[in-house]
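Hi support team,

I've been running sequence recovery on a batch of backbones for a student project. Most finish fine, but this one hangs at about 90% for roughly twenty minutes before it completes. I'm not sure whether the input is malformed or the queue is just slow. I've pasted the structure tokens below so you can try to reproduce it. Let me know if you need the job ID as well.

Thanks,
M.K.
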């Protein structure tokens, strides 16, 4: 954990000198545990409201999932909107959806207003069906437009084929609000802004415990401590038992990404769009073009973290060729994994844990939009501005299943894959 892993983002990252570990005792209004996108976003929002902030990070800024994901900044959450409606009602579901859009806009505006280099934001995400059900997708597009004021462009099978030269896809929907970018460079740029505003960031400083200290808290690391009024846990999938009841409410789930070697004109003949692409399966593939002729492709989830690059490369190469057999012979330049925090209810943990301790974590693969807005609503609450965090009250600290949790989650994932396969096979036969 002393350095970044070898992946596409670290190979194209802006300079980032290591920050010193915390030494001795320091004071701050708020201590943030975790220097990923959630921690950085929360710190930025608090500094803008006049609070003093110290971030303690176990490894490096955005070392975990924040700096090694697919780079999609999109609306919504890991939990589907209809399921949120059933649990919370339509009005609250719409308010949560608007928060997710605000998260997307926050990232876009930060890049533009501060001129953050190396982020390369590119608008557009194309969602595609791997089985034939145009009527269902049309209804979705119409409902998102009329009931949630979020237009999606419906694409029939021919329109999808014009953009993606494959027999695997049927209909699609285009999101022109979302975008894709370089997440690590964004986090590194945000970290620099935080330090310019007086925020302190200490890398290689894992939190070991948090104790009550007078009217506030004492956050203890290996070689130092932060005395503060508030603590915000932004631990992600790499958080351990030191996070107590919060850690018992999510599971670390691994996902996988590969980068191909340059494919030349062959890639342009297969993927004829600059949009990011993801299918609507329950166990989805997602991908986008980087550097003009390279494919960055992600997929699969497991409850055990596969780290054999050769095995990962072969696994995701098979997925790529299943969709684009014309890319036969492609070679993988890099393969890597990352751990995401998933709650059983598939919604983030955003809100108070009691006694001035807050959570902003468990984004379930939707952290690029949810972490920024989560950081904002927590900062608003700490500063007494709003209680928007209450929108997430229906999604509390549900037990993750303990030792049986990973096996149960893997079984559910396997079942979803079988359901996807059944629908696809039926469409191909039809």
């Amino acid at each position: 954990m002393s350095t970044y892993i070898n992946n596409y983002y670290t190979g194209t990252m802006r300079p980032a000198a290591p920050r010193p570990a915390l030494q001795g005792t320091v004071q701050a209004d708020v201590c943030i545990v975790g220097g990923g996108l959630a921690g950085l976003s929360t710190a930025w929002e608090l500094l803008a409201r006049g609070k003093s902030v110290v971030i303690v990070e176990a490894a490096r800024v955005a070392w975990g999932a924040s700096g090694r994901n697919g780079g999609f900044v999109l609306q919504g959450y890991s939990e589907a909107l209809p399921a949120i409606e059933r649990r919370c009602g339509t009005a609250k579901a719409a308010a949560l959806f608007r928060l997710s859009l605000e998260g997307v806009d926050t990232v876009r505006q930060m890049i533009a207003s501060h001129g953050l280099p190396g982020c390369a934001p590119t608008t557009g995400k194309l969602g595609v069906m791997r089985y034939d059900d145009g009527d269902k997708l049309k209804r979705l597009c119409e409902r998102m437009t009329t009931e949630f004021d979020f237009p999606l462009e419906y694409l029939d099978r021919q329109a999808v084929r014009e953009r993606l030269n494959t027999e695997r896809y049927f209909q699609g929907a285009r999101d022109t609000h979302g975008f894709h970018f370089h997440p690590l460079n964004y986090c590194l740029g945000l970290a620099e802004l935080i330090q310019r505003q007086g925020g302190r960031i200490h890398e290689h400083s894992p939190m070991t415990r948090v104790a009550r200290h007078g009217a506030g808290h004492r956050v203890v690391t290996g070689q130092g401590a932060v005395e503060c009024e508030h603590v915000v846990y932004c631990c992600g999938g790499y958080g351990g038992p030191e996070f107590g009841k919060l850690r018992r409410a999510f599971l670390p789930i691994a996902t996988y990404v590969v980068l191909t070697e340059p494919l030349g004109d062959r890639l342009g003949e297969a993927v004829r769009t600059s949009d990011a692409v993801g299918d609507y399966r329950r166990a989805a593939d997602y991908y986008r073009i980087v550097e003009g002729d390279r494919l960055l492709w992600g997929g699969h989830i497991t409850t055990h973290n596969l780290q054999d690059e050769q095995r990962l490369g072969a696994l995701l190469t098979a997925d790529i060729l299943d969709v684009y057999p014309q890319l036969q012979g492609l070679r993988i330049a890099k393969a890597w994994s990352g751990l995401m925090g998933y709650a059983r209810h598939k919604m983030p943990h955003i809100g108070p844990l009691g006694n001035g301790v807050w959570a902003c974590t468990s984004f379930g693969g939707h952290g690029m939009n949810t972490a920024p807005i989560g950081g904002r609503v927590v900062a608003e609450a700490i500063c007494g501005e709003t209680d928007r965090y209450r929108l997430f009250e229906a999604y509390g600290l549900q037990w993750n299943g303990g030792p049986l949790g990973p096996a149960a989650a893997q079984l559910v994932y396997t079942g979803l894959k079988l359901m996807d396969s059944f629908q696809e096979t039926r469409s191909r036969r039809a």
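--
Follow-up from support: It reproduced on our side and the slowdown came from queue contention, not your input. Residues 80 and 346 are 9 Å apart (CA to CA). No action needed from you.
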